[in-house]
Amino acid sequence: MDHTLSTERIPHVLTEILPADRNKSSFVLNVYSAPKERRDYFGRLFTCALKEAKERLIILVAFNAAHPTWGYQTQNPKGRRLALTIGQQGLTILTDPTQPTRVGTV
């Protein structure tokens, strides 16, 4: 079941996965932030998704934001803001920084 977080302009889809027994749903938030969207702030999006999902939320992303935490040698302002937001929201990053998802000029 898809949910809309109407306060957000960042492209995303929040999908609720309903178990057969309808006990505790899980949610998947899929987010895309284009490289040109350098000012995107994810805090409000994460807050809205966490409020909807309670504690059962997986966030899948293409942030186009550089930060050493997820494998870049440098960071950009978008990556710095994202890393700070992840920490403030108490989220856990599941990635292997030795295997970045993109190797390029960023």
UniProtKB/TrEMBL annotation:
SUPFAM superfamilies: DNase I-like (SSF56219)
Residue ranges of domain Endonuclease/exonuclease/phosphatase in the record: 28-102
Name the UniProt record assigns to this protein: Endonuclease/exonuclease/phosphatase domain-containing protein
Native source species: Haemaphysalis longicornis
Gene3D superfamilies linked: Endonuclease/exonuclease/phosphatase
An MF annotation (GO) of this entry: catalytic activity
Signal peptide: none
Source taxon at top rank: Eukaryota
InterPro entries recorded: Endo/exonu/phosph_ase_sf, Endo/exonuclease/phosphatase
